[in-house]
Amino acid sequence: MSTQRFFLSPESIDLASGQVEVAERSLISQMRSVLRLKTGDQFVVLNGLGQLFTCILEEIAPTRIRARIVDASQASGDLPIVVTIALPLLKGDRFDWALQKLTELGVAYVLPFVSDRSVVKLDAQTPNPNRPSSKLSRWQTIMKEAAEQSERASIPQIQQPAQFRTVLASIAASAKGTDLSLICAERRRTERLSAVLTKEPAGNLVGRNVALAVGPEGGFSPQEIELAIECGFQAVSLGPRILRSETAAIYAVSHVVAILADG
Ligand code: SAM
Question: Which atom of ligand 1 is nearest to the CA of 213?
Answer without folding.
Answer: 16
